[in-house]
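Retro notes, item 3 of 5
We never archived the inputs for the NDP complex last cycle. Fixing that now. Sequence and ligand:
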Amino acid sequence: MDALAALMKGPLPDLYFCIGNPVVGNPTQYMVEEAFSALNHPGRYLTCEVQPTELEASMWGLRALQFAGGNVTAPFKQQVFPFLDDLSESARLCQAVNCITRQPDGTYVGDNTDGKGFLQSLKEALGDIAQRKVILFGSGGAASAIATELVLAEIRELVLVNRSEDKAQAVAKRLQGISKTIVRTEKWEGTYRLQEDGLVTVQATSVGLFNKQACINVEFEGGLKDCLACDVVFNPVDTAFLQKAREAGWKTLDGLGMLVNQGSIAIRNWTGLEPDRTLMRRSLEEAFAVLTK
Ligand code: NDP
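Structure as it came back at the time:
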């Protein structure tokens, strides 16, 4: 009835979007609408598959229709830059946008909430991270967003390890000197051995996505103190990488927490409201269960 009253008497609900290609299988709409509903926020969220040749027209269309904000997913995270009025520091530094917010003056600002979502999970798991050394595998979009936030958070040291070393070097060059964090790259030849007390490692390659057995070529030393292994892959939630880490006595952090957090930060950007993250996690689990039915 509230929705009908809004339709007949106004104000109309805020509209939000997710654009990407492909987007079937992306659970964000379900997660966000569940959160909106619990918040009593009258927002409507639409998942739209956009052809690459239509990106420009789509972006002007979303503006003309006064969408309040939305998400951008592959392959458009870099390509939306020309259609935005401003960028957050995170989006500028990692050169990717996954969240857009309409400002009160009608301008559109791009942010990157992937790295921020990860950082929130990491801080919740460890508390103070200032003295930590992080070994980050991968140098694609997710890794670059995470690296950016780790450097902005001024961790002690960040080591970037990627199959194509040039990509790791490009990320390191971009982040060099931004804060006091030591940023360097290491070659990934054969098995990478993780063997220091207090280490944090992040699996940010796409290996293991939709594949329970697949794992990057790493070895976790046992008997270490205070080590944490994190995976960005969220489906399956308990990846082969995390299982291998646990077997060696490491603590672990899954990618679903990061996915929930990046979504909750987006909702905060759009509405100023704090969504229920437990409910959001449950919605994602429900959505992924549909895929396996
Ligand atoms: P990209 O395609 O941008 O990057 C993929 C990365 O994986 C590259 O560094 C690539 O190395 C590396 N890689 C791929 N195959 C292998 C392999 N066989 N061995 C070693 N390295 C490999 O992907 P994204 O960064 O966008 O996504 C990465 C993962 O992060 C995906 O699983 C995605 O679902 C997940 N993700 C999770 C989020 C969350 O909230 N939990 C948010 C965003 C993404 P190379 O450069 O050599 O090709």
